[in-house]
Amino acid sequence: MADVEIRNNPEQNRYEAWLGDELAGFAEYELRDDESITFVHTEVDDKFEGEGVGSTLARTVLDEVRRDGELEVVVKCPFIREWISRHPDYEYLLA
Predict the structure, then answer these.
(1) CA-atom Rg of the chain in angstroms
(2) SS3 for 71?
(3) What's the rounded Cα separation, in Å, for the pair 79 and 39?
């Protein structure tokens, strides 16, 4: 699989996963007063299912939150919640 590039698109409140010039998936979020980020929905195009796009997206966005160190994470998205349950070293980010 080609490298997935993750880009924050704050105008649409989502992180996007790009493979070349194709939007492969996204993780929608809501920011609350520079205190928390809530992940509400993650979607990967059927064309890219099973290729690790969703996992790369989850890891990258949570790594960015961890690196910035300023936001607590709230998870309403079942995919992100499940991903964190399989990677417990990210649980401390949760509000």
Answers:
(1) 13
(2) coil
(3) 10
- The pLDDT of 85-90, averaged and rounded, is 96
Chain length of the chain: 95
- Does the pTM surpass 0.85? The reply is yes
Residues 92 and 86 sit within 8 Å (Cβ to Cβ): no
Its sign, for the CA torsion 48, 54, 59, 61, is positive
The CATH classification number of 5-93 equals 3.40.630.30
- Domain ranges in the chain are 5-93
For residue 30, CA distances in Å to 21, 86, 94 come to 25, 23, 15
